[in-house]
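User: Quick sanity check before I run a bigger batch. Here is a single chain. Can you write out its predicted 3D structure?
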Amino acid sequence: MLQSMTGYGSTSLQLDELEVCIEIKTLNSRYFDSKISIPSSLLSQELIINNVLKEKLIRGKVELRIKFVGTSNDSVAFNNSVIKKYIDELKEISEFDDSQILKSVLSLPNSISKGELSLSEAQIKKIINCFGTVIERVIDFRKIEGENTLKDLKENLTVIKEYSEKIEKISDLHKKCIKDELKIKSENLEISFDNGRLEQEVFYYLEKMDINEELVRLKSHMSFFIETLDNDLKEKGKKLGFICQEIGREINTIGSKSSNSKIQKSVVEMKSCLEKIKEQTLNIL
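Assistant: Done. Predicted structure follows.
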């Protein structure tokens, strides 16, 4: 099963008068990179939450947000001593209007303190269980994205395969035409030459432009790519990226060794498909 690194999941949980909203977003990243935003009453669980995210989601940029809504237990208090100190210091700097000072001071750090909400162990356990449900939804989302990616990857690989088969036929015909051409030209030359030496040079020239080995390796790399796509491993994006590099190396060599315009055109088309595959592999788990 192929999984994308793009995922989303959310849910809410009612705990008495408190509503807990949990949301997870994931994007592609080379490594696991988490950003966790949770209320202070859950900070004791942050390490556990991060470890679960890493274990279940494996790789990608992960953003978790847990928010409390509609709680009547929140209390707000003004820090009078802090506010007074801010006002006194601002008045020393310049003459400000009192209403403007107060408005500005209330937005400064520590001017207002918010009472922390305390949660029981049972409530924390329910939140963690709910958090696990959201992770499963993210994974389901990733699998659906992975199915779409898999289809696209296989379509592009099929196109590369078709062009490689086309190149194989053109290459065999192209070599035969060059050999016949060289033979005719040599026969028309009104000079004496060493036939054995000529045959060696022709053989060397044809061997230099031979792309059979590259086509065989290209076919092997593509088979390995398909095999990796279809295996049961969860994490395969990096491996597929390495195989893409090998496929690209063979396509480039075919292009550099061939002077035939039809082969060059097919090479361009294969490169175009390979670029699409590379872009997709960057988002595969």
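The mean pLDDT is 81.

User: Great, the batch can go ahead then.
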